[in-house]
User: Fold these one by one.
Assistant:
Number 1:
Amino acid sequence: QVHLVDSGGGLVQAGGSLRLSCAASGRTLSSYFMGWFRQAPGKEREFVAAIKWSDGTTDYAEFVKGRFTISRDNAKNTMYLQMNSLEFEDTAVYYCAAKFVGLPNYNYWGQGTQVTVSS
């Protein structure tokens, strides 16, 4: 099993920055994809970004390209989401997640961390 704890959310003004962290424990992540999802009030959960742990390959949703950066620290078993140029529409609960490379769905989830962007 992979246990995930996400953190780093808070209140930030539009145009500001925030860095989210996701600490993983239980096993090494070399055979996993790690990703970030978010869910705003009244909306469905949506994909934000992902990283393949073994080689660092990244993928981003179109609405965050150029603003958000996903990264990993293998020694710390920790994933980060650096969020710059935040917009009011980025307000949501952000969840980190993990998916075994041989399975189609993310099945390990953090508890979520609230990001609120004020206008």
Note: The mean pLDDT is 96.
Number 2:
Amino acid sequence: QVQLVESGGGLVQPGGSLRLSCTASGIVFSIYGMGWHRQAPGKQRELVTTISSGGITNYADSVKGRFTISRDNAKNTVYLQMNSLKPEDTAVYYCKADHLRAYWGQGTQVTVSS
């Protein structure tokens, strides 16, 4: 079975940093595009960032310059480094793997609050 398992979420103060990890199993990780999406309660899920199998990245304007996506194919893991966090970054963050079909992780909570 395919599994995507996120970790690294938690409570952080505004201006702080957090690094999320997503480790995949059951897929040939290197051929999948990977991404992070987030969803706050009562709001639509939104795309945060993606990284292609070739390493091309894109970011939502709201996180550009603050967040960095990276991947380590040897570890079947994609990361999201989040710096200069703001309260509006508070959401459940979901990892996604895309190739012939999409797979989703279970999500990890990120809360930015004083």
Note: The mean pLDDT is 97.
